[in-house]
Amino acid sequence: MPLHPQVRQLRELAISENPPALNQLTVAQARAAESTAVRATRGQPEPVHSVINAVIAGTGDRWLPIRVYRPNGAATRPRPVLVYYYGGGWTLGNLDTGDAICRRLTNSADCVTVQVGYRLAPEDKFPAAVHDCATGLRWVAAYASGFGGDPDRLAVAGDSAGGNLAAAVCLLLREQGGPAIATQVLIYPNTHCGRRGGSMADYADPVFFNRSTVGWFWNNYLAHPADGSDPLASPLLAADHAGLPPALVLTAEYDPLRDEGEEYARVLAAAGVPVTARRYDGTMHGFFTAGADAGAARAAVAQVRGHLRDVLGTA
């Protein structure tokens, strides 16, 4: 399909601004540019009942930031809990860049959402982020009742690299015997380091997320190229996908990660995992967090809401 008119407008705006390619920036410059873009586009934050910022114990003497969102409205029982990991190629991103989408999901799905901060590359290479995300989920499972959540109705989600981390956490916790995850929601996830051909070759548009950007992120994330074959880096390469949580996998038509996300959905289904997969045509990588005024974003949030309510129920 042709680009959606809103996506075409975003592309034309980006061309007029002519920003440098991400892989031409230092990591510090890329992080500053992302923070500036988020501040410029986030608008007025969607109100929720409450937001709590805290830190939890991580590996060694490290502390991990978390942000807990509680939805508007009264609850008749503890609410389901969504643990969310922001995207950014394991290199960019923080609790602020994921704030808007977490607020929308909290109110839309009537759940408690906990955003988990994790160590970034290249300062902390794979698998540091995976273990931080797993630590955050274990903490949520242990303490959910303290902020109105139900630890028996626990979901995990993330976009892009956050989707990769959500899939990896599901693999890791399956091997470690829990905590139990009711469902995983993977938004255009990275699932296979070094992917060639197909959408990875087709979508090299310098204006949007492209294969050069993908390579830059992987180079930051991995200490050694061989680490890309580890299933916790490339979930598609796991020897066995049986017994993983039911999944919702969303992809974008004009996205170099499209094929590997859709293949992951097929592999999960072949292993007996209940899977719902949908490609959003006419749009690009990053659409899910683009804003409540974007049609594809609204539709995708509504689909996630429906999936979470079907699997987890409501308060």
From TrEMBL:
It comes from the Bacteria. PROSITE patterns: CARBOXYLESTERASE_B_1, LIPASE_GDXG_SER. Its EC number is 3.1.1.-. It is an enzyme of class 3 (hydrolase). InterPro entries: AB_hydrolase_3 (IPR013094), AB_hydrolase_fold (IPR029058), Carboxylesterase_B_AS (IPR019826), GDXG_lipolytic_enzyme (IPR050300), Lipase_GDXG_put_SER_AS (IPR033140). GO terms for molecular function: hydrolase activity. Signal peptide: none annotated. The keyword Hydrolase applies. The active site is at 160. Keywords: Hydrolase. Pfam families: Abhydrolase_3. Residues 82-288 form the Alpha/beta hydrolase fold-3 domain. PANTHER family: AB HYDROLASE SUPERFAMILY PROTEIN C4A8.06C, ALPHA_BETA HYDROLASE FOLD-3 DOMAIN-CONTAINING PROTEIN-RELATED. Belongs to the 'GDXG' lipolytic enzyme family. This is Acetyl esterase.
